[in-house]
Predict the 3D structure of the following.
Amino acid sequence: MLHMISCALYSLFAIKWLEIVPFQQIHSRRQVFQDSCFECNFLHISCLWKYLTESLLLSSDGEKLHFMNLLLYMAPMKAMILLPFTLYIEGNVLSATVEKARGDGFMVFLLIRNATVAYLVNLTNFLVTKHTSTLTL
């Protein structure tokens, strides 16, 4: 969960405040459908579907989104999909994490570092996909 939330926040910061890439809005229902189908791939239901949707969203002229914008839209959807599973499997992990963070400040540093590395791994994944193909990964 922290990973997805941090990806959304880092992407928002990079796009809106640092203006690294221009902000792109989703203009069609087709893009929303493709993006939401792309989100369902965290369950590894279909590698072929992941390949098709990722290829469309990153390369199709009419539906093309920059990978930072795609991550901005993807991460909150993934977090919402993962939330029920997280609450069911891990229980009340948030209160345990907060307790540990209050007791040890180094834990906060580790969580922020973990979230940052996860965001950078996602960006690298999209860069590799952009320059090769989704089957490479």
The chain is about 75% helix and 0% strand. The chain has a mean pLDDT of 76. Helices lie at 2-17, 29-39, 47-59, 67-90, 93-103, 105-131.
